[in-house]
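Exam review. A common question shows you a sequence with its structure tokens and asks you to describe the fold in words. Practice with the pair below. Do the first one on your own.
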Amino acid sequence: MNPILVEVLRGNAVESCHAGALAIVDASGAVHTALGDIERPIFPRSAVKLLQALPLVASGAAEAFGLNDAELALACASHSGEPEHVATAAGVLAKLGLTADALECGTQWPSREPVLRGMLARGETAGPLHNNCSGKHSGFVCLACLMARNAGTDPAAFARGYVAAEHPVMREVSAALSAATGVDVERAPRGTDGCSIPTFALPLRSLALAFARAGTGHDLSDANARAARRLREAVARAPFMVGGTDRFDTRVMQAFGEQLFCKIGAEGVYCAALPALGLGVALKIDDGAARAAEAAMAVVAARLLQDRGDLLHGYSHAVLRNWRGIEVGALRPGEALTAALRAP
């Protein structure tokens, strides 16, 4: 059974507990910290978007179509559907001579409530550009367009069905995941992600290794190492694109720049790269709670970066308030997590 990583207090009593597992690994594969079962395969979901975007850059597609920092950062994003996100995804498609009809991620309403309320008040409807994965999918379509150009075929026709596992685009994405994690994803348990692409269940140890490699370039091909560096640079320059207003990933990467790349995934997953330290992080909250995953990631980042500031502490020890604004409780790290990170 995995240990408790995060506790929820109501008053001064524990109301809920969130168990999980954590792996911190260096680029050679040596384990820095292991807590819980780090060998059990888990679906990383959107936490691996940086890895899924590697072929976009490594292939030369991003350069061929002139993608800028904001557009590359959006390719790594689970964004809130704010106007800047929508416009940036639309801008990528415009460079390809395509429209939102090319996206196969599905329609999703913005998660940012003021944006959603504004759309409803104006009688607007959501589309695939509002989907939190529209940047990633615009990147997939961009890769498909380069492949089509090289093959001398129609880009729109070639891109159609790009979410299928057997499509050339997804084969490139799967190959990048395999190369980074050291796991043959074709032999891993497979599911379908919320945005319709394949998702593979992989051990936390392998995911942490992949992010250590993405942060250092160690044991990646030259093309993938350059791609990882370019994507991390783009995110550091345009962190708003990765999440949005008041989102953990955006706020933390605005604060720490290239010291830290971090990305949440659905169902309580977090992955991160700390390039200067040569470390990768992967954690999973067993019950899928996102706020517990953020709290645990904040604890890990604060410990590894030796940060004592308010930002990370505000997530790891978040104050909980009721609808009247009265303080009713808080989050705090579980004893097992603090003890594991305290060890030399």
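Now try the second one, then compare your answer with the model answer below.
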Amino acid sequence: MKVIGLSEYGGPHVLRPFERPDPRPGAQEVLVRVHAAGVNPVDAMLRSGQLHQMYNGLTPPFVPGLEVAGTIEEVGSGVDTRWGLVAGAHVVGFVDNLGSHGAYSEYLALSARSVVPAPTGASAAAAAGFLNNALTARNVLDAFRLPPGATLLVTGAAGSVGGYLVELGTAEDLHVVAVAAEDDTDLLHSLGAATLVPRGPDIAERVLKELGGPADAVADAALLHERIAPAVRDGGQIGILRSWDGDPGRGITVRHLNVRERDGDRDALIRLRDQAEDGAITLRPALPFEADDAPTAHTRLDQGALRERIVLTFDHDR
């Protein structure tokens, strides 16, 4: 089978096709024929070498990708088919990628606990781009355990993770305050944000002025770190999605969160799929690239300012 991976770290140009043995599902696994794979910032981190410590001692090619949409090709022994995991089913899956095991692959053997039926009516391209970001947002909110009515500040609120934080927080009756570009006001209000504070200099001071006081917690999807910490109340919480060794003091709990912790969390995946079906969370429009055009897809990812979700598509008929 074909995978898109890298044998050296660098810019988008290092991504290229490789041939790997066809996988087979083990016990409690399903074999997924991948139609589309989501492209995420963590994929660029792998490509550039920022995650090299995870890959030390492993043999290339290294294959990026944390999420897929496709069809089940084969069901391994012991899989409970009551979950809808049968041959031919349209599914989405979370991929805890490492080494040559990653979403940029024509076929993947995945734990049945990491695969759920795709949202009804969603194309593979659209379905491939929501699971990782929505699960990241779910992981943040589960760590915070905020009561209804609490104030949740979301930085980078118009981005993929930020948008799901806004929607999921709103669904849990939190007072969601969004930090984003002023041009995204209409989008964020449509997602449920109660208040928008335009991003820019002195953001913490402007949040405090807008709210008349600090937030209970900040989900820092924009990686503002020490710049946003003053907007959190004493004893509040900050959710960190990438490395930060700062200490804001004042009894604030800094939660270092990694979505890989939720690999195999079937209940969370099913809940997110159901929320995508009933409209509680929104599938972003897809920006598809053919798998062989992965360097172009990563070039666009590096440029930022995206409101669509980049996905790689696999044409199994060629």
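Model answer, second protein: The chain has two domains: 2-130+283-313, 134-259. The mean pLDDT is 96. Full marks require stating both points clearly.
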